[in-house]
Amino acid sequence: MIQMIPNRAPDGVGMTAAWPGVDAARAREDAAPVSFAPTVDPEFVSRMRKQNRFTTGLEIARYTAAIMRADMARYDSDPTQYTQSLGAWHGFIAQQQIIAARKHLGSTDRRYIYLSGWMVAALRSEFGPLPDQSMHEKTSVPALIEEIYTFLRQADARELGNLYRALDTAREAGDGEEQDRIARAIDEHQTHVVPIIADIDAGFGNAEATYLLAKKMIEAGACALQIENQVSDEKQCGHQDGKVTVPHEDFLQKIRAIRYAFMELGVEDGIIVARTDSLGAGLTKQIAFSREPGDLGDQYNGYLDVDEVTAETAKDGDVLIRREGKLLRPKRLPSNLYQFRAGTGAERCVMDCIASLRGGADLLWIETEKPHVEQIAGMMDKIRAVIPNAKLVYNNSPSFNWTLNFRQQVFDSWQKEGRDVSGYDRARLMAANYDGTELAEEADARIQSFQADAAKRAGIFHHLITLPTYHTAALSTDILAESYFGADGMLGYVRDVQRREIRRGVACVKHQNMAGSDIGDDHKGYFAGEAALKAGGAHNTMNQFG
């Protein structure tokens, strides 16, 4: 019988009360031996437990929160140790991301999953495709978290099942050396369960609504929740116009609500990511309450676009603010919104971030309009002057035209250095005729190093791409549809999909195995012994793939 050795804790994290999430996830494996009914094989029970080490979402949340906390501490001491994630809109997509990371890079360390509200709205709503405006069902978010972890746990079960079958084959062959090798692989197996950073939008209502939804998301397994400072019923995608922010105290109430949800459920290490959209948000729905000059409310109101008036020039219905002996009338739009002074976005971002960290957030997210290291670093320098260990989660967004942005950045830096840029049209640098030029190659090199550069210079702990798999699904389907429905016919699928899967060793080429057929056969053997009718026999066409 294989000894049940738990997965290792994250590097530098001991099995102590300092990281209760790690201990809790392993408690079952260290429990005292149990007695078994005479018809139950203890080794099969041991295998099934190893294949299903997480039985609840809260176990997952505690375990992954501990991993993320350890990663944050490691980044503080070494900014090259930043973390990454890709957005997933289905459990299968998330599963394939982590399987691929394990296969190609040997480990899931520092690799997470991002759950994007944009993709939930666009792809998972019962209303059909929706814009990113918090119109989708709030319950679809915890449902997707649960779905993702179901697929990740199935990846564990599948991989361990393959090892157990290989172990049985080695036993039958009497190959002791191979048995030992496989036993070590089983004992040292690294789970596919990784942290999820989940988008709770602007909280889907007031602070109580935020708390209730946060609980559902945590119970489903989320260890990190990202919330933004927009008005919940006016929420817009961070890369669209018309964003409306709320005063700080309104936002801090929701941060506290999420913290209470984590604490109530025993996920003391839960992570709150506070996002500010102030850089691109020029509107507010309300004037902040202020108790005294210089407090958060007064600072927020200080950025309002105002006209100075007198008691005589003020009109009926005007809302007025008195500051330093002057009467000020905030500019109010027909939408009943107030506008901020132009050019104050970066200052407001800095204020938002400091307030959020002081108010209980763990990580920051500044939504920008372009990927520019120095722009981000300029704000982070001011934040870190107040809170030295401030860290960012950053959206490497597909809403940016990365090629054009970085080619223009190179153009501008070359021009500043006095280099000859007469052969380039700055406005048309996206054109294909610039591909392969020296400028384009330098731009690509900067794109390649962007994450490492920004982690070191701008305090970015976590780099994510919100909706990459939305685009990969569209691109791969476009390629397949063109060839399959066109002159290539079946060759379009074989050449562009199946043959590439085989050459790259993509496990899904054996789709029956990936869907759980072999796991089901194992269970049939446990339950029925020699009487089991199994699907994976000699006539299974999956055998054609070796």
Structure description:
The chain is α/β, with parallel strands linked by helices and 546 residues long. It contains 18 helices and 14 strands. An 8-stranded parallel sheet has the order 12-6-4-3-2-1-14-13. A 3-stranded mixed sheet has the order 5-7-11, with no helix packed on it. It has a 3-stranded antiparallel sheet with strand order 8-10-9, with no helix packed on it.
In short:
This protein has 546 residues and is an alpha/beta fold. The protein has 18 helices and 14 strands. Helix 2 packs across helix 6 (140-173), helix 6 packs antiparallel against helix 7 (176-187) and helix 8 (207-220) runs parallel beside helix 9 (248-264).
Rg from Cα: 27 Å
Largest sheet: 8 strands, parallel
Number of helical segments with 4 or more residues: 18
Q: Using DSSP, what is the number of strands?
A: 14
Summarize this structure as a short list of keywords or feature phrases.
isocitrate lyase activity, 546 residues, alpha/beta, Pyrv/PenolPyrv_kinase-like_dom, lyase, ICL/PEPM, three-stranded mixed sheet, 18 helices, 14 strands, Isocitrate_lyase
What topology does this entry show?
Elements: H1 20-26, H2 42-51, H3 57-77, E1 83-87, H4 91-105, E2 111-115, H5 117-123, H6 140-173, H7 176-187, E3 196-199, H8 207-220, E4 224-228, E5 244-245, H9 248-264, E6 271-276, E7 283-284, H10 296-301, E8 306-309, E9 321-323, E10 326-330, E11 338-339, H11 345-358, E12 363-366, H12 373-386, E13 392-395, H13 402-417, H14 438-457, E14 460-465, H15 468-484, H16 490-504, H17 511-514, H18 517-528
Parallel strand pairs: 1-2, 1-14, 2-3, 3-4, 4-6, 5-7, 6-12, 13-14
Antiparallel strand pairs: 7-11, 8-10, 9-10
